[in-house]
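Lest this sound abstract, we think one record worth quoting, the chain in one-letter code, the fold tokenised, each line plainly labelled:

>
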Amino acid sequence: MADHQHAYAPDALIGEDIAAYLQRHRAKTMLRFITCGSVDDGKSTLIGRLLYDSRAIFADQLAALESDSRRVGTQGQAIDFALLVDGLAAEREQGITIDVAYRFFATERRKFIVADCPGHEQYTRNMVTGASTADLAVILVDARKGVLVQTRRHSYLCHLLGIRHFLLAVNKMDLVGYDQAAFDAIAEDYARFAASIGISGVTAIPISGFRGDNIVAASAQMPWYRGPSLIEHLERVEVVARDAAGPFRMPVQWVNRPDLDFRGFAGLIACGSIAPGDAVRVLPGGRTSTVREIVSFDGPLDRAQAGEAVTLTLADEIDCSRGDVIAAAGDPPQVADQFEATIVWLGDEEMRPGRGYWMKLATQTVTATVQQPKYQVDVNTLDHLAAKTLALNGIGVAEVFADRPLVFEPYAESRSLGGFILIDKESNATVAAGMLNFSLRRSQNVHWQPTDISRADHAAMKNQAPRVLWFTGLSGSGKSTIANAVEKRLALMNRHTFLLDGDNVRHGLNKDLGFTEADRIENIRRVGEVAKLMTDAGLIVLTAFISPFRAERQMVREMMQGCEFVEIHVDTPLTVAEARDVKGLYRKAREGQLKNFTGIDSPYEAPDNPDIVVNTVEMTVEEAADHIIRHILPLK
């Protein structure tokens, strides 16, 4: 094994002048990088070696490492450097990386934060997290195996996420006899792939993380390689801070109002710099003002720049809240609600086009729907493939519609205002990471046209409060029958109503939709939009739809104002509904003639907390209708 002496001796300045040492340390530049690649390429071992050789571990940690190496290590009696970063019990038991591990270390020239990312395909979501803030990617390749699918996938994702510096580390050269031909073949193969996806200037280094070859110093085992060692390259690579030179942007995280005399807007500066007296614009509203003061933990500042957390006070009392963006008045970011985006799907369940997800972009949170992908990317061939959805680890391009305008910039220009995540509203799990490419032109061409007669005027003319009475339940539960009975009672009360029935709507508005999960979602979305227009007209809208998914019923609820949405669960057991089988649909579904039928081969998600429940086993139609009328009155 190569010499294990540390490459960096302790700085003598520590003992002579600790203040001077700390000042010099603070002045060092910072490089954030990740290690990624396929399974068992030696990522954790490499980082462990870097920590060891840069003296970033203490004596007690070294003692524990030596003990753990003998007990659970994979290198016999030798030190297993991977154990320094594989901290989870499951990682040590299986010898794999599962979660992203962040480690800090420093050399005499530079400070580093390294993210050890998992190689297994099922943990690609964790790798995306690590890559989202990195400046450089170390792509590890096992010299025995060459470039693999995960090598390509991780490289593609790193490039997609804005990383511009790539270091190809051909690891385990000791296991191929330090053969130059093996290294050259892998370097050429990777260079061809990198060029095909737009990566240029890849630095390739032959290494052995376990034995320490070419990690901090040139290896005597590979005299044919005359380039820098891995740590030398990491110390010298020029990283330009893209955010520092751009126009000022600060997403507002919190409105600080400790007393009546102070109102400040706190946030992390994402781009540019700011000084008192600078003109700013608050988006999406568009109001302008000037900065009166920059407040920090250490007191007022004359100037603040990207990466600093500050509180701004403005010269004017203008509307500004969490989610807004304070920007340079003369060069503001864009505002739109429809985009083309590149999406990396991270959820175990496939994407549901048309379903509403929480979309988080900087400090902004909105409801967004993703349309059917324009295409999915094959990371092996880079071909654009037709796709109706995206499954786990799928990468595709799709249109994204938000329910209100977002302040944004293309991801290529700003990670902070161009990168977003999607969150499932039911589970609160992060299901996708995305990069905004551009706003759709139609979102810039279509604007709200103001009208003089408001929705309140429409309701007043009808002498009633608008409502959406949303009947949901299994096929055959009695939704349409009960909704019809309720509408007749409302008509006798001189209420203005309209009944939207599931079957009737599919004869016209939704005749192009089938019964796949995606089509069911789109069916309910369209009905929700129609119901919203009808409430704007002051009507009481009754809808009778199976509407099997909670997420879509919640989406419609969020379209309405106040308490206008009333969810009515027509609760009928499947056995009873199937016994009725008025339309013969259950029989066809059981015989396999009818696919995706709710209750048979497609799920029904009963409401968790409906506003009204009617049990059609215990109630007659008339009793159910009376029960509903009693709950919704008064309607004014």
